[in-house]
Amino acid sequence: PAQVPNLCISRRNSCCRSMLRAVKTQTSAVSMLRAAARRAYWGTQAWQDQALAAKRNASSTQMVSLATLQSLYSFRPGIAYVLDALYLAPTARSPAQRTMRSCRGAAFATKDAGLAPLPASRAATTTPSGTRITRTARDSGFEPLPAGAKEPSGAELNDLVRDWVDKTGAQSVVIQGEGDPLAAQDVVCETLRLAQGSGAQFRLNTLGVGATDAIFDALGLVETVSVFLPAAEASKYDELLQPREPGAFEDACAFVRRASAVSNVEVTAVDRPDVDVAAVEALATSLGAAQFRTRSWLG
């Protein structure tokens, strides 16, 4: 008789474990279905119309949005800024010595160039009246963390996202700062996990270097992953980005391939005269990317 309670407890624990496995399997299946639906929507006329409308609206609302961001209790300088969406800056660390900006030409090569961290294709907008607006770092609110300040935690960024969505109703949130988000992927994963149910729709901009299994598990919570792949061969890749560790090109390619299985993946490259852009596009397609886009070369 003394063994009966233990037997019951054992059976109950076994049942709980089976239920947890079933829930995890169901959650994974739902994430895959959502990713497939997003990939089917990508590039359609409705998607293009939505993107164009968002860009046209961005220029007229940016300054208001920046003032709103700076008014939030959860905001502090260096952790977020505003372009066509709310941008989160989890870290200034990067696996490469050079950046996507520096690959676009001398105008973006230095940190004090005064330009926002995104290239003109995203940092500039044509208003409905035809006026071209170029956004500077000051316009966007972008600035590095003050000396000695701690990088934001996932909880801090989640608070900011929720406050932003509640205040503005805007749902687009991009994870990209001066550094590469994957250099702080624990924070990125925590942010995505905590922000579930907030209404935010996330985009992750990255080099795709140094990813762990945890980030791939979290990509089901991301609408779009944009990977900067500046060249189709390792030697040119290393020349342009100057990675801190060997094997970065292979790592980035592996990231695109694996991420494409769970999220919409866009690969971007700069239309430089010394880069075979067609070869980069072919590589991106072979790796499973749903979209390829070039950024203009400023010389």
Describe the protein:
With 299 residues, this protein is of the alpha/beta class. It has two domains: 1-41; 46-295, TIM Barrel (Alpha-Beta Barrel), CATH 3.20.20. It is built from ten helices and nine strands. A seven-stranded mixed β-sheet has the order 1-2-5-6-7-8-9. It starts with a helix and ends with a strand. The model is unreliable at 119-129 (pLDDT under 50).
In short:
The chain is an alpha/beta fold and 299 residues long. The chain has helices at residues 3-41, 45-71, 120-123, 137-140, 154-168, 185-194, 213-218, 234-241, 248-259, 277-286, and strands at 80-82, 86-88, 124-126, 132-134, 172-175, 201-206, 224-228, 264-270, 291-295.
Segments where pLDDT lies below 50 for 5+ residues? Answer: 119-129
Q: What structural class do you assign from the helix and strand content?
A: alpha/beta
Q: What percent of residues adopt helix (DSSP H or I)?
A: 40-55%
Topology-level CATH name of the largest domain: TIM Barrel
Q: Give the neighbour order of strands across the main sheet.
A: 1-2-5-6-7-8-9
Q: Any idea of the CATH class of the largest domain?
A: Alpha Beta
SSE string: HHEEHEEHHEHEHEHHEHE
| Count of individual domains | 2
Overall body shape: globular
| Main sheet summary | 7 strands, mixed
Q: How many β-strands, per DSSP? A: 9
**Which architecture of the largest domain per CATH?**
Alpha-Beta Barrel
Whole-angstrom Rg: 21 Å
The number of helical elements comes to 10
**Mean pLDDT score, rounded?**
82
Between the first and last Cα atoms, what is the distance in angstroms?
Answer: 84 Å
β-strand percent reads: 5-15%
Protein name: Radical SAM core domain-containing protein
Organism: Pelagomonas calceolata
